[in-house]
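Support request, please re-run this one:
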Amino acid sequence: MRGCEFEELVESAYRHTVRELGLENVKPSLRLEFESLQTAHDAIHEFMLLASQLFPSKGNKEISWHRKSAFFTFHWEGFHHAHRSLIEALCAYYNVAFLLLRTTLEIVLKGAFWECMSHKEYQQDCQVLDSDGWGKRIKERLNEIFKLSVEVKEDSGEISASIYDKISPIIEEPDFRPNIKTIVRQLAQWDILNPIPDPVASIYKDIYGRLSADAHVVPNRTDIGKRILSMPDQIFDQEILQDSLSEYAHCLHEVIDLAIVVELNIMRDFIEQYGEVKANLQERVETLEELGLKYSLIRAKKLLK
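Re-run finished. Output below.
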């Protein structure tokens, strides 16, 4: 095949892909829900920006980002999932958008859980895990791993992401696979979800429960199901559904508010110990307020007292 013919094929494939992406829906979607979508989008970026603000400066040799690397490995992933989720919603692929949003929530919760489990003070204070069937199994397996060598215990706190190396052989075992409800309960006991009221009800049953309907392919949560209910004459067209777009923007905002709460609580020790970090957070308070991040703002203000 000659070069010019190949380039023509690539260009044709590109135009076809652009149409299938639904990019023509982005601008109309923004017009319909501009304020709420802009706020949710900016909140995603605030979640990422705070990560760089909650560490002491590079000149402080006592502190390394490795101390929180178990969380920030997942944090980076959560940011990109949330961003991609928003793009899918703008293109009118709502089921995909909600699915990615559910994954974003799981990423943040699991990252926080494993971050805590990499530190001795949390390992020794697992009241929820100690009273839960799955929790007992996971603690037993972790104890087996930690007994293998003293080095495992010593390095997991300073390089928290090292816990992933230790659990990688068993992470996909059904008896070891994290249970979101138990994770929420344990994070609440560790004060990682403060100040969100009744986390099991508000996070697991409400937010996670709503998003799970998309993951479990409940008929009226599929895109075609939504169209049958709202526009039965155009069920096979990838048209914008304003109600779904509005619902999505609200849900994204809720998830990011929760994510920033988790982020602040994971970084609580740095905020409380280092004036530089506290000053950085103080500079972000106005933005948290402008973005309507209710629980993030409450937590930030409390940490700044």
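Residues 23-303 form one domain. Confidence is low (pLDDT under 50) at residues 149-155.
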